[in-house]
Every structure is written in structure tokens, then in C-alpha cells.
Amino acid sequence: MSKNRVAHSAAVLLILLASLGQAESEGQDRSQPVQYRQEPAPLTLALIRGNLYEVRGGSGANGGAYIRDQSVLVIDAKMTEDSARALVEKIAELTTAPISWLVLTHSDGDHVNGLPGFPRGVPLVAHRNAKRDMDAAFEDDAFKDGLNWMILMMDTGVLPIVLKPKDNEEKRVEIHHFGPAHTDSDLVVFFPEEKVAFVGDLLFFERDPLIHLHKNGTFRGLVAALKGLLALDAEIYLSGHSGPAGKEDVKTLLAGLEEKQAKIESLIAQNKSLEDVKAAFGVPAEPSAVSGRPRRPGLVEIIYRELTEKKPGR
Ligand SMILES: [Zn+2]
């Protein structure tokens, strides 16, 4: 199987929107604060650019919304039904349009567990591996049967979709999959006109990157994904748990990771053990299990294991 071997591919959603939608935001309240809030806070829609909003606050990761008067595209589903409903209500304050698309950046619970709070039948766009994870994680079969999966194969080609055939304005949205990185279901939603990319959990700035080995995430993949993000003609990167970032921020993050990799490579060349390498980075000795569950290895250990081509599992 060559699953997950494709380094990068893109699908494009061609969304037809009514020209009536042009002016729908005039007169709307655009005074939402633009600061990112770390602490749990009421759910808000922060205007980023054009008709693009970042979904902040509530329970779960930040997401996004492209809001017109004929159609709405939502990115990520919050972590609880309540927060999802709060999001749906916030959107309804700005438009009477139904949610036309819900794109999931990956399968983690803080991005998808709010799904039951969305209207039934909303078309879901996700990587097929997200469906795999969610089929396993969601226990309510009736709920699962009601999900309206639209795109599951994101590894190849370009997929044009006509959202509303009667509408007459085309809106291009690109869905990118750069291969397994944070997980093997990562999608990036890129709006070329606005130069804004919603990247899910591919970017963290206040902590080490998070790589879910149990979902086939990889460090090499993350490096490749960051390069993919830089290759986009994007000016603003919006992620699940950090504030808005620019291209320089992503470059700095990538350089830091490559530096860490180079240092670990040189230690491996000196026949240093994993424990030596962790000590060199000041990583404290950790118990092998926490609360009865196997400890998830940190970044240095993940890099070391990949570079020494050991299996990531224990
Ligand atoms: Zn995540």
C-alpha cells in the first residue's frame, strides 16, 4: 500500500457564491477583538480578512468560518455540542445562509467532538483517515450513519465542487494535505484571494510541536508540512491553539526544528544514546507510564527515534 506516501497534493473547492453576497458584511459589527485569547472564553468570531473569521473561545481548538449571505464554510467543529451550537448561533447573527461545508483539519477530539451540535446533514470535508479515526471514536452508530461525508480521498488531484449551482460567483478554496505530520489526517484550508491558511494543529508557537504517533504523525512529515505551508502564497496562518502567525513566524519555527534535528543527528553520529540525547536537551527523565497509560514520547525522543529508524511504538 502506498497510503500516506504522497508528499503533497491539493484539492480545490470551487464554490459558487451569489454576487449578492458582496455587500452582506456592510454594516455588520466588525469590532470583535483581534487578540488571541489563551484562557477559555465565550465563543467569538474574530474578523481576519474579507469574509474570513477565526473562531475563538468556547471549548476546543480555534477554527474558522467563511461567511457569505448565500453560503458558509466552517473549519473545525469545536469540542462540545454546546460550543458547536454557540458557533452556529454566532454565524446566524451574520448571515441567514445555512452552513454549506464543514472542513475538519484532522480527527482530534478538540476539533471534531462538537459535530453533534451542528445541523444534521452538513457536508463534511475531511481526510479519509479522519473518518477512520472518527468511526472508531464516535460510539453512537445512529449519529455516525447521519454524517454526510463528502470527500475522503485528499491525496491526489483537484476536486472542483459547485456549491450552489444557481449562484454566479466562483470562490476558490484549496484543501491541502501534506502527508502525515501532526496526524495522518491533517488538512490545510487555504483561501488564495485572502492569503489566509487555516492549518489545524500543524503550528504551535508556545510549546513544542505536537506529533501524534498513535495517529501516524511524524517529525519528518511535520517538517515537510511546514515547508508546504511556506510554499503557499499565504500571509496569515491560523492554527488551533496559537495566535495568528505570519510567514516569518513559520520560517523561524521550521529553522528551529531543523536545528534541533541537526543537533540530534550529530549526537547520534557520536553514538550517543537516547538518554544522552535527552539529557543534552535538558529533557527530564520521565516515567514510562502516566496514570497507567504509556507515556507519549516528547519531541526530542520522536526525532531521535525517527533518525535512528526505530519503530516509534514501544
Ligand atoms: Zn490536534
Tell me about this structure.
With 314 residues, the chain is an alpha/beta fold. The protein has one domain: 4-Layer Sandwich (Metallo-beta-lactamase, Chain A). It is built from 8 helices and 14 strands. It has helices at 81-94, 109-112, 128-137, 141-146, 219-231, 247-269, 274-280, 299-307; strands at residues 9-17, 44-49, 52-56, 63-67, 72-75, 99-103, 123-125, 148-151, 169-177, 188-191, 196-198, 236-238, 289-290, 293-294. Strand 2 (44-49) and strand 3 form a beta hairpin. Helix 5 packs antiparallel against helix 6 (247-269). It is globular. Zinc ion binds at residues 106, 108, 182, 201.
Tell me briefly what this model is.
The protein has helices spanning 81-94, 109-112, 128-137, 141-146, 219-231, 247-269, 274-280, 299-307; strands at 9-17, 44-49, 52-56, 63-67, 72-75, 99-103, 123-125, 148-151, 169-177, 188-191, 196-198, 236-238, 289-290, 293-294. It is of the alpha/beta class and 314 residues long. Helix 1 links the parallel strand 5 and strand 6.
**Largest sheet data:** 7 strands, mixed
> What's the β-strand tally?
14
Shape: globular
Bound molecules: zinc ion
Widest sheet: strand order? 2-3-4-5-6-7-8
CATH superfamily: Ribonuclease Z/Hydroxyacylglutathione hydrolase-like
Mean pLDDT: 83
Q: Over the alpha carbons, how many angstroms does the gyration radius reach?
A: 20 Å
β-sheet strand percentage: 15-25%
Q: What labels would you give this structure?
A:
single chain; 314 residues; alpha/beta; Metallo-beta-lactamase, Chain A; 7-stranded mixed β-sheet; 5-stranded mixed β-sheet; disordered N terminus; binds zinc ion
